[in-house]
Amino acid sequence: MAHIGDLIAEMLAQYGVEYVFGMPGGQTTALHDGISRRTDRIRHILMRDERNAAYAADAYARLTGKPGICDVTVGPGANLLPAGFLEALNASIPMIGIIGELPLDWLTLKEKGIASQGFDQLSFFKTCSKEAYLVPSVTALPEMIRTAFRVATAPRPGPVALIIPHDIFDAEWDEDVLKITVDDRSQKIPYLRSCAPEAQIREAATLIAKAKRPALVCGGGVHGSDATAVVTEFADKLGGLVVTSLSGKGAVPETRDYAAGVLNPLGSKAAIDLIKEADLVIWCGSKVSQNTGMNWTLPMSEQATITIDLDPLEHGRTFRPTVAMLGDVRETVAALSKALPKLPARREWAARIAEVKSACDADKQAEMTSDLVPVQPPRVMNEIAKRLAEDDIMVSDASFAAGWISGYIPARKPGRQFLFARGQGGLGYSVPAAIGAAAVRPDARIVTVAGDGAFSYTIGELATQAQYNQKIVNVVINNGKLGWIQLWQELYFNNVQSAVLETQSVKPGYAGAAQALGLLGIYVESPDDIGPALDRAFAYDGPSVVEVRIDDRATPIHSFKRRLREKADTPFARPGTVYKLRDWKISPDL
To answer: Which is the CATH superfamily of the domain at 369-583?
Structure first.
């Protein structure tokens, strides 16, 4: 006799889900049994930590547009999901968490774990999900699964928690009584598309035609709308500056003359400098967060603005746009592009973009070819970039890794080939996200970059990479410290020492740990050895770790670089100094 685990597995398969990422428990074993009967259509990938299941599902969703599915058991399994759920919620990534629960008639005993592992899971997930549901009966379950897919994929996408009691999971499924139907519209994002009204399109087109120095800022919403081809065509026609957020990297090819890189304190100096000179800024699928908005100093008061977003709450959140265009990015940009008159060449603006980019590129080239020891991270990124094939995927961890990737590895074609943990910016994203990416793209090479601090968070998932023999190259840039925090403390708190990850006698070896877990492990200290080490890793039939010892003073943050130069003569901060919020230009958790 089939059980409800079979029903859930069958519905997931009919929705086109190929992989479920998670950790089984007694309360959810029926789901795993159901999946095991359908391995020709759907498979389960066993993670070492439930938190990482959400990160793997997140990467799967970013690359496919389908909701990433993760499963956890009640209690200690469930309480590890919020980090990944919040990443997906803030980054607008569709996800469904299938979460075990106590039997229905035990729910009054959940407080204080009187019933083992019990707690108020529904209230808990309400705080970190787009929506959370507790399934009340077997009869209600199919419709609630359909609702979970619809809510996860509908504007604005996000994670949905589906909490299923143990007795419902284990109940018998009478296929003649409980029929399965799925809604193919909610198999992937966007669930529905809309377009901004014609009056707004005409108004925006007029504003663009009048601008002398237009700029386009592309956020993650461009990828969420599968709009990179349309946006690139629009950018070609615009004749202005184009920059992206970290999540928007790849919205246009960064090989174009007008592309100046990532707008972020971690990103491109050319982007930061040039955006201030624009007289019109078009924010396309961007929520104008603290970091893309450069601590909300952008847009400047004298700049005209256009916002293009499917979420009505994003228009006017931090500034009042000159023209607010409510609609799906792909549909709205296509309509706007069609409505544009013949635009002027804007040669002066193009020349200025080229001038600033050229000056910045000269400095970058020196960093990328540096023979200094300890190794400079841009040299590592340069060697990675040389070896990336067209369909390979880069996965960044949080902190400095995001800056090194965004600034020194270009997006050569439009599309989502760079995954950044920017919803929450939490450490530990890259290794588990690579597992999800490798499941989706088994023929591509997945390359991760993480500092030693971030890599330490999820080192156990290397065993998962090895178990599934995934083609992943994990690059660890090891400076023996939490680099961001160390420099923050030095610059603003006169060198408080609480970010050191090693001692003279104890230095964790990440390549050695990888070797012990079944991966190829390579340790590098010399710049000349980086290329050969990466060649071995890229040629290896399985996962690898390349650990590179880097300069512990290296930072991609331009203001940090400036402060380090100034510090010898004029320290920025002294013990006991108190700063107001407006004095802090960069978040320590960026």
So the answer is: Thiamin diphosphate (ThDP)-binding fold, Pyr/PP domains (3.40.50.970)
Q: Name the nearest CA neighbour of 401 among 373, 424, 437, 429.
A: 429
- Over residues 549-579, the pLDDT tens digits come to 999 999 999 888 888 877 655 544 433 333 3
Inter-CA distances, 525 with 219, 375, 430, 461, 575, Å? 36, 7, 22, 25, 36
CA 373 and chain centroid, separation = 31
CB atoms within 10 A of CB 40: 7
The 10 Å Cβ neighbour count of residue 389 is 9
**Residue-range domain boundaries for the chain:** 4-186, 198-356, 369-583
3-class SS at 318?
Answer: coil
Q: What's the CA gap between 537 and 380, in Å, rounded?
A: 14
Q: Which two tokens stand for residue 562?
A: 């400036």
Cα→Cα distances 349→155, 355, 434, Å = 36, 10, 40
Q: Taking 90 as the threshold, does the pLDDT of residue 408 lie above it?
A: yes
- Give me the mean pLDDT over the 105-125 stretch: 90
Region 13-31: mean pLDDT is 96
| pLDDT for the residue 565 | 76
DSSP 97-115: EEEEE--GGGGGG-GGGSS
Q: Can you give the pLDDT at residue 584?
A: 35
Distance CA 572, CA 38 (A): 61
The DSSP bridge partners found for residue 162 are 98, 133
Q: Virtual CA dihedral for 361, 266, 392, 353, nearest 10 degrees?
A: -40
pLDDT in tens, 470-528: 999 999 999 999 998 988 888 888 777 788 999 888 999 999 999 999 999 999 999 99
Q: Identity (one letter) of the amino acid at 420?
A: F
**To 10 degrees, the CA torsion angle through 338, 342, 348, 352?**
10
Fold match flag (4-186 vs 198-356): yes
| Whole-model pTM over 0.85 | yes
- The tokens for 156 are 């604005």
Cα separation of the two ends of the chain:
52
Identify the DSSP state of 91: H
Instruction: Name the H helices within 397-503.
Output: 400-408, 430-440, 452-457, 462-467, 483-492
DSSP code of residue 326: E
> The domain 4-186 belongs to what CATH superfamily?
Thiamin diphosphate (ThDP)-binding fold, Pyr/PP domains (3.40.50.970)
Q: Per-residue DSSP letters for 425-453?
A: --TT-HHHHHHHHHHH-TTSPEEEEEEHH
User: Residues 281-303: what's their mean pLDDT?
Assistant: 96
How high does pLDDT run on average in the chain? 93
Say how far apart CA 3 and CA 1 lie, in whole Å. 7
pLDDT at res. 571: 43
CATH 3.40.50.1220 matches 198-356: yes
589 HSE (CA, 13 A, CB side): 6
Q: Give per-residue pLDDT as tens, 200-227.
A: 999 999 999 999 999 999 999 999 999 9
- Yes or no: say if 101 and 166 are a contact pair by the CB < 8 Å rule: yes
